[in-house]
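Students often ask what a holo structure prediction actually looks like on paper. The answer is less mysterious than it sounds. You provide the chain, you provide the ligand, and the output is a string of discrete structure tokens encoding the 3D arrangement of the protein together with iron/sulfur cluster.
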Amino acid sequence: TVNIKINNVPYAVKAGSTILEACHEVGIDIPTLCYLKEINEIGACRICVVEVKGAKSLVTACVYPVNEGMEIFTNTPKVFAARKTNLELVLSTHNKDCLACVRNGSCELQALCLRYGVSNSERFAGEMPESEIDDMAPHLIRDNSKCVLCRRCVAVCKSLQHVGVIGPNERGFKTHIGSAFEANLVQTSCIHCGQCIVACPTGALREKDDTDKVWAALADPTKHVVVQPAPSVRATLGECFGDPVGTNVQGKMVAALRRLGFDKVFDTDFAADLTIMEEAHEFIERVQNGGKLPLITSCSPGWVKFCEYYHPEFVENLSSCKSPQQMFGATVKSYYAEKAGIDPKDIVCVSVMPCTAKKFEIKRNDQDANGVPDVDISITTRELSRMIDRAGIQWADLPDEQFDPLMGESTGAGTIFGATGGVMEAALRTAVETLTGKPLENVEFHDVRGTAGIKEATYDVAGMQVNVCVASGLENAHQVLKSVVSGEKSYHFIEFMACPGGCVNGGGQPYQPASVRNFTDLKALRAKALYSEDEGQTYRKSHENPEIIQLYKEYLGEPGSEKAHHLLHTTYQK
Ligand code: HC1
Ligand code: SF4
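The corresponding structure tokens follow.
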């Protein structure tokens, strides 16, 4: 430790900390705007300035290290005035049309202006840079009139996702974030992950809002509207209503969906179990018949697009299984449609996903097994929270309710899909039991759990050494693939998720400001909610799900059957 003073109070803080970290350690929040820990540490916005005794000018707390004997002042009139002026300068080029901005209430710039008493937002009013709204992509909208040039999106896209399709264009007053040659995002190799959106402190980046389409379907008496929320949505939706991070709100979520007017409230977790049936079967078949290995999971559409764009040499390794979202849609419009006696054309299938890439996935080729799209509308966790809010549904008062039967039952294996390593663990529970023919003694595969970016393990399965790898965040996926190409590593089965930590940390998940993101491991807390749910479930292996057993018995036959292939499998592009 080092001994320092903050606002005249002595503290011993961790050596090597920045002033920002040291202050956080002792319970003082220093405001930031551009800083994202380990992702964007550029000290550019100067909102975090503090006074240091002996320093000639104010220093930026986010990058300035503490040292022995340092005396720091965080609350002087000089500090407050500098922060306020810096905010006023940001506002001089900012579109302040806040009333119905999607970030009103969660905007980090707005919160800082309130905190530092920026009452005259026009103090440095002058010429505004020109900007255009880019709304051509299927998943997001960029409105640079609300951009503060913090570069958080740029850093995330490049360093976490190994994509790097956005960056600063031009210089000085004309600087703006965009793609090379001013291309629209849709013309680039963006993989639709939405990580840039959750990194954005303002309303400059937002998902394409599809809630009007859902309201229209719900109001149409000729439509039968079914909804499927993804595994991870129950672990995060509560955050939009003030619940602590990591609260499982499954029961309230079901009640809210029912009150919004959906005709059936089913569960993507059911389809996650279905995916495991098909994918475990595919894995065993590839192992036994000399098929292409490693088998790589295909449920994360951001990862699939990344594979197609950046590593086409691995397209044949992708599992032919559709994602649970799509398997659900294909099954609801065949099996359920027949049972309920409804024409698939009259069914509107809505998914609630933690993901913006799912908006792209529903429009991919070969995702329309019944001659109609498997899934019609995909909204994010955030969009669902806005629907609940608009409907006036009082979250705190909601009872806990249950999913509808037929496609609403799931096992713990389906639940854990929402966290990195969950798909692998779920697949292993079924594959190992199938291969050994014996009930698993311990269903938990701890080596593939946790928030590490890359995890590996070797399991002895019926006498065969099976090497598995799990990675999340596409930079990590890229590193794993490089080591496979070079021959340094050899795996039989790999799980990749585009978003760091998996779906719990998806690009469609609730906003959390940098002040929280920098000091809380959101992905770990949210994942914990799913693993505890799994622990308490009656069935923890996909093949034990009674509704899945019924589906195969009455409709699909066996995993990998012709009918299953037609409905539940897909193809990719190179
Ligand atoms: Fe996911 Fe999936 S787990 S991809 O991570 O396989 O989005 O939650 O719905 O489809 O089930 C996301 C989450 C989700 C699919 C499942
Ligand atoms: Fe980059 Fe993902 Fe944003 Fe596309 S959606 S620009 S890939 S961070």
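The CA atoms of residues 388 and 447 lie 38 Å apart.
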